[in-house]
DNA sequence: TATTGTTATACTCTATAACTATA
DNA sequence: TATAGTTATAGAGTATAACAATA
């Protein structure tokens, strides 16, 4: 989880510490905002027994039935070995299942189960609702602009670094 | 680190997977953007032998000489126990030091060392430069707007959830 | 030879709970 | 009793390298 500390010290006292040049840095603001947003989603999804990452995987599997693990890993920006315990867990919980492929016996195609679909159906409105909360104090125009600016930032990074190795920034 | 997978599968093939309702979600966009930004900073700071989190701590310590660990933990949004190994490491590397406090012998005041100041002095331009890259394709107005919108998002979350426990979202 | 999925392993980041030495 | 810092421990989350089965 992502809770925060003790109670002996007043938060105000801690906030009174000088943050120096940290304030206004894009990286810092993005991180703080990202963490705040993720906490709200995490908390709500937790009641359904899944994490944001598991939710994202369920979505992708549902939209791409029978995909191979390696492909799913790529799509999620993870190493193939990282996906193994993730799918183990979801399979144990009965939300996903591995099925052998007739043509290629190395492959384990991933399918969402009925139970997985139920959880997903319950989770989607929760995620949408969380997104509403996140966008709570933004107008529709501001929301579009925020998305647009973040997209620009990412494009800018890609261009400037034009990664020699093809490592995409999925998530 | 935050690298990404194998090479057997074309990135395009993976990108061709349907991401469903994930696209356009604030949480997802924030995460992807945050990760992209952090990777660029991480990579550059790595050459100086420090992580972004260590850099942030150095900044705060430098600006608040002799602060207690518990206070620093709060300021960084971490548990006091989390800060211990972090400071251990920085102390071992000779960038910070713990000094006893005359009045209260429980306290270990944290100070930046000369070496720490040197590393910090080298790191600050690196961080600023990374920030330039991040803001590369934004105009000054867009940059201000992005910061403003993220601030609004955080305020919105705080308001809507108006945390009963005082858990600030530092970082 | 190359690819798929798995294992074994390790490292980072974070927290909670219990402890110590003080206050 | 309460606080400052520490330890012991645990759990995510992630990766790399080596491996078996299969292509």
From TrEMBL, chains A, B:
SUPFAM superfamilies on file: Winged helix' DNA-binding domain
InterPro entries linked: HTH_MarR-typ, MarR/SlyA-like, WH-like_DNA-bd_sf, WH_DNA-bd_sf
Record Gene3D superfamilies: Winged helix-like DNA-binding domain superfamily/Winged helix DNA-binding domain (1.10.10.10)
Domain HTH marR-type: 16-155
Coiled-coil ranges (or none): none
Pfam families attached to this UniProt entry: MarR
UniProt name for this protein: MarR family transcriptional regulator
């Amino acid at each position: 989880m992502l809770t925060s500390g003790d109670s002996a010290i007043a938060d105000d006292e801690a906030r009174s510490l000088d943050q120096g040049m940290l304030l206004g840095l894009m990286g810092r603001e993005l991180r703080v905002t990202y963490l705040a947003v993720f906490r709200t989603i995490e908390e709500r999804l937790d009641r359904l027994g899944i994490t944001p990452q598991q939710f994202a995987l369920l979505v992708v599997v549902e939209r791409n039935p029978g995909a191979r693990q390696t492909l799913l890993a790529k799509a999620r920006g993870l190493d193939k070995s990282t996906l193994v315990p993730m799918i183990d867990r979801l399979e144990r919980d009965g939300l996903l299942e591995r099925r052998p492929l007739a043509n290629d016996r190395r492959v384990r195609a991933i399918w969402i189960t009925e139970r997985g679909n139920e959880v997903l159906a319950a989770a989607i409105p929760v995620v949408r609702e969380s997104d509403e909360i996140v966008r709570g104090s933004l107008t529709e125009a501001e929301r579009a602009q925020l998305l647009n600016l973040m997209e620009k930032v990412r494009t800018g990074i890609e261009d400037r670094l034009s990664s020699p190795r093809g490592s995409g920034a999925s998530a």
